[in-house]
Amino acid sequence: MITVGPVLFIIGLLMSLLAVAMGLPAIADLATGNPDWQVFAGSAAVSLFVGVSLMLTTRSTSMTNLNLRQAFLLTTMSWVAVAAVGALPFAFSELEISVADAFFESMSGITTTGSTIIVGLDGAPPGILLWRALLQWLGGVGIIVMAMAMLPILSVGGMQLFRTEAFDTPDKVLPRAAQIAGGIFAIYLFMTGLCALALWTTGFSGFDAITHAMTTIATGGYSTKDGSIGYFDNPIAEWIIVCGMIIGSLPFLYYLRVLRGNLSPIVRDSQVRWFFIVIIASVFLVTCWVWNNSNFGPDDTIRHVAFNVISILTGTGYVTQDFGLWGGFPTVFLLCLMFVGGCAGSTTCGIKIFRFQVLAASARAQLSRLLVPHGVFIPYYNRKEIPETVSNAVMGFFFLYIMCFVLLAASLSALGLNFITAISGAATAICNVGPGLGDSIGPTGNFGSLPETAKWLLSLGMLLGRLELFTVLVMFSPAFWTR
C-alpha cells in the first residue's frame, strides 16, 4: 500500500499556508467594515487547525524519498484539498451560495479557469474579490512549479521532454522543487507588482490594479467587475494586460535563465516561436473578419480582437466584447483556440503548443515513411530527436483529452443543457479558459444558472484539465493502489 504520511504532511503545509493567505481578505473586509472578515478569520482558523494537525501527526515521515505513486497522489490531492479549503469563505460569506457553487468558484480559482457563479461583482465585498484573485495567483505559481518539478518525472503527456538532470530520480523531486519554487516565486511576485503599477498609472484604483495584475500574470481572468475588463473601457490598460497575459504564457524557467544572463533558451525555443506565430496568425484572421463584418474603426478592431483572441488562447478568459456576436467564424475559431493554450512551464492551460509540434513532427515522419517505405525518417523537436515514448505519450494524451471533452459535453447535455452550452462549457472547463458561448455562460453571462450536478461535473473537468488528465485518472486504476 502507498505510504501517505509524506503526502499528508505536504497537504497540511499547504492548508496552513492557505490559512495565512486568508488573513489578507480578512484585513480588507475589516478595513471597510464588512462583517465577512469574521468568515475569513473562522475559515483561516479551521484551515490552520487541520493543516497543523496533519503536519504534527506525520512529521516523523521521511520527506526526501518521494516515490512515483506518492507524487501522483500528492499532485491530485493537494489541488482537491486546497479547492475544498478555499471554498469555505465563499460558502459562509454573505453571498449565501450553495456548497456546489462555493466549490465551483474555488476550483475555478485555484485551477486559474476563471468561470464564475457570482452575480453582482461590482458591489461584492472586497474580501471576496481579493480572495478570488489570491486563489488564481496561488494556483498560477503552483502550476508552474508542478509543471517543472512533478510532471516531467511522472512522464505525463510528453512532459518528460522537459526533464532536467536535476530530476533524473524521484528522490530529488522535493528538494529541487523547493529550490525552483523560490526563484520562480520571486520572478512571479516581481512581474505581478510591475503589472499592478502599470495598471495603476492608467487610472485603475489600487485595489483593482492589484487584483487584476494577480489574475493577469496567473492567466486566470477573475475580475472585480461583471463586465470584466470591458467595464473600464481603457485602451492603454487593455494593452498592458495583453502583455501580462503573454508574459504569463511563456516558460517561467527561462526567466530564471535570462536573469543569469542566458538569453538563448527563450530566443531559440521553437515552442516560444510557434506560440507567437499562432498569436499573430489568429489575430490577423479574426481582425480581417471583424473588420469586414462590423462597424468598428481600425484601432478598436485590432484592440478588441487582439485582446480577446490572446485572452482565449492563453486561457485567461478576460473579455472586452461579447465575441459571440462577431459572427460564426470568430466564434468557432475562438472555440478551437481554447484547446491550444500556451507554452509548457507557464501558467496557461490547454493542450500546449509543444504537443501540437510533437504531433506534427510525428505525422510528417509517418507520411514520409508511407511515401518512401525503406527510408529512415526521425521526428525532431527543438533540433533534438523525439523519443518514441514521448510521441506515444503525446498521442495518448491528445486522444484522452478529446475523449474527456466528449464525455463531459455529453454528460452536460444529458442534464438538459443545450448544444452550445454543453459543448462550450465542457471546452472551457477542461481547457481552463473561463467564459463559454451562448447567452447562459457566454462572455456576458456566468455559470450560476446551471444545475448543481453540472457544476460538480465542470469542477471535475477543471481539475482534469489543470492536472493534465493522467495525473488524476491514474488513481482510478486498481493497480495504482496495489504494490
Summed up, what is this model?
With 483 residues, the protein is mainly alpha-helical.
Number of strands: 2
Q: What is the overall shape?
A: globular
Main sheet summary = 2 strands, antiparallel
User: How many angstroms separate the termini?
Assistant: 6 Å
Please mark out the parts with pLDDT under 50 across 5 or more consecutive residues, or reply none: 164-173
Helix proportion range: 55-70%
Instruction: Please work out how many helical segments DSSP would assign.
Output: 21
Order of strands in the sheet with most strands: 1-2
Q: Average pLDDT, to the nearest integer?
A: 88
List the helices and strands and how they pair.
Layout: H1 5-21, H2 23-31, H3 37-57, H4 68-92, H5 99-110, H6 126-149, H7 151-154, H8 173-201, H9 206-217, H10 235-248, H11 252-259, H12 264-268, H13 270-293, H14 298-313, H15 328-337, H16 353-371, E1 380-381, E2 384-385, H17 388-414, H18 419-430, H19 438-441, H20 452-466, H21 470-473
Antiparallel strand pairs: 1-2
Helix pairs in contact: 1-3, 1-4, 2-3, 2-6, 3-4, 4-5, 4-6, 5-6, 5-20, 6-8, 6-9, 8-9, 8-10, 8-11, 10-14, 13-14, 16-17, 17-18, 17-20, 18-20
